Structures are given as structure tokens and as C-alpha cells.
Amino acid sequence: MNHPTFSFEFFPPKTPEGTDKLRNTRKQLAQFKPQFFSVTFGAGGTTQQGTMDTVLEIQCEGFDAAPHLSCIGSTKDNVRALLNAYREHGIKRIVALRGDIPSGMVEFGEFRYANELVEFIRAEHGDWFHIEIAAYPEYHPQARSALDDLANFERKAKAGASSAITQYFFNADAYFAFVDEVRFRGVDIPVVPGIMPINNFSQLARFSDACGAEIPRWLRLKLQSYGDDMASIRALGLDVVTDLCDRLLSGGAPGLHFYTLNAAGAVSTVWQRLGL
Ligand code: FAD
Questions:
Q1: Where does residue 90 rank: exposed (0-12), middle (13-18), buried (19+ CB within 10 A)?
Q2: Ligand 1 atom closest to residue 69's alpha carbon, by position in its atom list
Q3: Could you tell me the distance, in angstroms and rounded to a whole number, from the CA of residue 143 to the centre of ligand 1?
Q4: With 60 as the cut, is the pLDDT of residue 180 above it?
């Protein structure tokens, strides 16, 4: 097996305090020598400047930075300008997404699905960018069926993706089954599990309801029963997430991508426990 690769995801901070906090987080996580740091992008371009600023700051610090780029509601000219700007700054990796459709959006723009964005990036820039795409081991909440979602993933991967990062999940079997399915369909790009540390139950439940990532019943009930006891929530979360990462890596996952929510604490502890 190749050496596993690790990456950390941030969102663009909105305040000077948030910017300082993220710098500090990055400093702590940089010691783990990640392959790259990625920075999310608000659907409809709401964080476009924040994403660009954060990515350029990371790059200036000497790390590889990957902007997320969501295409829903965008025009080809907009996306073209952004890609050209990233290329001029020497950015070589993009996380290409459709994005979540903001409520009330009526104009979808010139891209309907992420496979069209992947095709567009390849058509405009050849092999310049390493293109990451999103994968859903528990299936995307808007997919008509599991098989439909797999077919859509296959189309998106074959449009020219270099690798995939998954939505978070807590059930390792879902990941392994997904990878088997896509291999059977002739998709051979690395599929890196996305890992969500557990720090706060109500926030996790909200995210999970929105994105279709299942919190297993036993885990949901146990976390819920801790109420405001954050220390117990974190302790259980660390056990569960460390065990998940361990199973994924020993089962052959090519690396891990951590959804840090701009905080280093839980990720660092998981990292140390895994002995990476
Ligand atoms: P797609 O691959 O286009 O899929 C969307 C839905 O459409 C799926 O149900 C799929 O089955 C269906 N579909 C796809 N193609 C077709 C087709 N041709 N015909 C019919 N149906 C089709 N969101 C953000 O806004 N900003 C971010 O920075 C961000 N980062 C993310 C990072 C990762 C690693 C992941 C996993 C998700 C991220 N998201 C982000 C969330 C993502 O944008 C949403 O999940 C979004 O709803 C789907 O994006 P996608 O690129 O997977 O879409």
C-alpha cells in the first residue's frame, strides 16, 4: 500500500478573531505535514473572496492549498475567471463541487451538476489542476436512488477527476461497500474518507440531518444522553472517531481528510492516538 495521505479542511473566517484562530489552528496542524489544506466555498459565491484570501495565505506559508469551488448559480465566465486567478497564483488542486442549492434560488446558472464543472475545468486547463470531487458512501440526500447516485458519481469521476473525498460517515462498512461498487464500475481514483470529529452533539445532529450522514442509533442516543456534559461527548467522540480512522486505514483507505471546523484540538488528539 502507498503511504496514506492526510489533508485538513477549513472554512474562510469572517472576522479578524476568526482569522487569528485559524492561523493558530494551521500552525498546530502543519506539524502533521498534510498533503494539503483545503478551504470551503459558500454556494453561490458567498465566500469567494474569503476562500481566495485564505488559500493565498496558506500558500504564502509554504503549504499546498486547495480551494473548493461550487458551480451552482455561477456562469462559465465567473468560473473561468476564478480558475484563471487560481492558476496565476500557482494553485494546482481544486475541490470541484456543485454546491448546496440555497433556498429560494431560481436561477441555477450555467452548470447543473458537478460533472459539468469537472469537464469544464479539464477543457479549459488540461491537466494543470488535480481535481478532487465529492463522494457519498451513504448516498447524497437528493439522489433519486442509491444506484442513480453511483451512476452519477461514475459519470463525474470519468469526466476527469483525479481523486475523491467523501462526505463524513460513522459506519466504515458504508465506505468499503461504496469503494467496491465504484471499482466494479471501473472508477479507479483514490477515494479518501472525510472525517468529522465529534465535539458538539447538537451541531453534529444538525449537519447530519442536512447532509444525509447517518449518526448510528446507539451513538446518537448515547451522545444525546450526555446533555450539556461536553467532556463526556468529546471523550466518546474521540473513541469513536479514532476507532473509525483506524479501521479505515487498516482496511486500505488511501488517507484521511479531516473536517476541522477551524479547530485543531480533536483532530490532533485523534492523530496522536492513531500514532501517525
Ligand atoms: P453532484 O455530484 O452534482 O451531485 C448532486 C446531486 O445530483 C446528487 O444527488 C447526484 O446523484 C445528482 N446528480 C449528479 N449528476 C446528475 C445528473 N447528471 N443528472 C441527475 N442527477 C445528477 N458545499 C459547498 O457549498 N461548499 C463547499 O466548499 C463544499 N465542500 C464540500 C466538500 C466535500 C468533500 C463534500 C463531500 C461536500 C462538500 N460540499 C460543499 C457539499 C456539496 O456541495 C453538496 O453535498 C451538494 O449538494 C452536492 O455537491 P456535489 O458536487 O456532490 O454534486
A1: exposed
A2: 28
A3: 10
A4: yes
- Place 11 in a pLDDT band, splitting at 50, 70 and 90: very high
What does the pLDDT read at residue 227?
95
Q: How many residues does the chain have?
A: 276
pLDDT digits (tens, 9 = 90+) for 29-52: 999 999 999 999 986 666 789 999
Query: Structure pTM?
Result: 0.97
Residue (of 89, 91, 74, 75) closest to 129 by Cα position? 91
- Which residue CA neighbors atom 53 of ligand 1 most closely? 98
Burial of 25 (0-12, 13-18, 19+ CB in 10 A): buried
Domains in the chain, ordered, with CATH? 5-274 (3.20.20.220)
Ligand 1, CB cutoff 6 Å, lining residues: 40-41, 43, 68, 70, 95, 97-100, 113-115, 134, 140, 142-143, 148-149, 152, 156, 165, 167, 194
| Centroid of ligand 1 to alpha carbon of 265 (angstroms) | 28
The active-site residue out of 9, 116, 132, 138 is 9
93-148 pLDDT, tens digit each: 999 999 987 777 767 789 999 999 999 999 999 999 999 999 999 999 999 999 99
9 is known as an active-site residue:
yes
Average confidence score pLDDT of the chain: 95
